[in-house]
Amino acid sequence: MFLKVSQLEVRYAGRPQAAVNGVSLNLNAGDIGVLIGPSGCGKTTLLRAVAGLEPVSSGEIRLQNQVVGSASVSLPPEQRRIGMVFQDYALFPHLSVGANVAFGIHALRKSEQAARVAEVLALVGLEGSAARFPHELSGGQQQRVALARALAPRPQLMLLDEPFSNLDVDLRERLAHEVRSILKAAGATALFVTHDQLEAFAIGDVIGVMNHGELHQWDNAYTLYHRPATRFVADFIGHGVFLPARLVMREDGVVAETPLGELSDVAECPLPSSYPNGECDVLLRADDVIHDDSAEVKAQIVRKSFRGSEFLYTMRLASGQTVMAHVPSHHNHEVGEWVGMKLAVEHVVAFPREK
Ligand SMILES: Nc1ncnc2c1ncn2[C@@H]1O[C@H](COP(=O)(O)OP(=O)(O)OP(=O)(O)O)[C@@H](O)[C@H]1O
Which of 215, 235, 255 is the last residue of a domain? Predict the structure, then answer.
């Protein structure tokens, strides 16, 4: 394992709650891990602890099997061979792009420095820009210079903390894809912090969802979306809606009774005995709910938002529950209308009933 974080706890003096609390994660060489979660959940603190910028209270951090951080060991940041990119580009304004990029490789011979600068500038798509100055570049270009500067010394691990948060939305999405390609081309292993879900999906091989200092799940995007480990993940990734359900055992398997009808013939349904009386809440994504005029169950449209090829309808069932559905945009119903709905759930994700 390339990066191994075990039961990590990081505390700030005078704060009752640990900023990072019992976090364990593994990152393979060449993989990009992304930490995502609401403001204050501990993402930056975790990243800084990996960098050696925050002391570890308990647990440990290993890089290539060497303990670099624990309550008793703290390898200084400069010995961890880590490259860092932060949200403010932090380029030296009085130095040329080339001199900025060469900043961490002064130990190399001049000719090697120049070759490496040219190589990483080409990698980030800025070949031929070595003589320019930061103020002559756009925000996106400056951030690519910062990335080139961090990559130049061939760090063993790259840490990126919200590197696009000062850029406009269109540019961010494009850069997210670009940065993934650049990191992959460089063969880098990286840990990336963001609060933007689309950015996390665009960049990460593996994504960790944090809340209140804890890591709720560390998985690929597909699994996070389809098999969230906790209610928090279900809600944070893709805005889940929960529907009360009762699991009952029938002759041909478990069925989930819900206000939108029965879910039968579903793969991997928990057993009724998993919950008191079989009563639980099941997760419904907007793509699990299908508009069908002939369906028996009707729901009233309370909100709709146009998404181009489809509408996202928010609907209320007669029982008062709210569900969401993606509906092709030629089904243009009005707010207040009652329309038929049915479920198309392939697997049941259930959580304990919340009052
Ligand atoms: N230097 C510090 N001293 C004391 N408390 C701190 C310090 N830095 C962060 N904290 C606290 O630790 C918790 C985690 O903060 P952290 O910056 O790691 O969160 P984050 O998830 O990166 O948030 P954001 O997305 O807003 O940057 C927060 O409650 C924060 O107030």
Answer: 235
Q: Is the CB of 21 under 6 A from ligand 1?
A: no
Find the domain containing 267 and state its range: 240-352
Q: Tell me what ipTM this predicted complex has.
A: 0.93
Same domain for 212 and 117: yes
Q: Domain holding 131: CATH number?
A: 3.40.50.300
Q: How far apart (Å, rounded) are the C-alpha atoms in residues 340 and 336?
A: 13
Residue 153 CB–ligand 1 contact under 6 Å: no
208 lines ligand 1 (CB under 6 A): no
Where does a domain end: 235, 253, 285?
A: 235
Phi (first) and psi of residue 181, to 5 degrees: -60, -40
Q: What is the pTM of this model?
A: 0.88
**Cα–ligand 1 centroid distance for 61 (angstroms):** 19
The answer on 283 and 226 residing in a single domain is no
Instruction: List all residues 6 or more positions away from 106 whose beta carbon is below 8 Å from its beta carbon.
Output: 113
C-alpha 213 – ligand 1 centre gap (Å): 9
Verify that 214 and 262 share a domain, yes or no: no
Which residues contact residue 303 at a Cβ distance below 8 angstroms, ignoring those fewer than 6 apart?
313, 314, 335
Q: Which two tokens stand for residue 6?
A: 């075990």
Shared domain for 111 and 215, answered yes or no, is: yes
Distance CA(335)–CA(301), nearest Å, equals: 5
What is the whole-number distance in angstroms between the Cα of residue 22 and the centre of ligand 1?
A: 16
Q: Which ranges in 230-337 belong to alpha helices (H)?
A: 231-236
Q: What is the pLDDT along the chain (355 residues), one digit of tens a residue?
A: 899 999 999 999 999 999 999 999 999 999 999 999 999 999 999 999 999 999 999 999 999 999 999 999 999 998 999 999 987 768 999 999 999 999 989 889 999 999 999 999 998 889 999 999 999 998 888 989 999 999 999 999 999 999 887 777 777 777 888 889 989 988 999 999 998 888 899 899 999 999 999 999 999 999 999 899 999 999 898 877 899 999 999 988 899 999 888 887 677 788 899 999 999 999 988 888 889 888 888 999 999 998 888 889 999 998 888 899 988 888 889 999 999 998 888 888 999 988 7
User: Does one domain contain both 78 and 46?
Assistant: yes
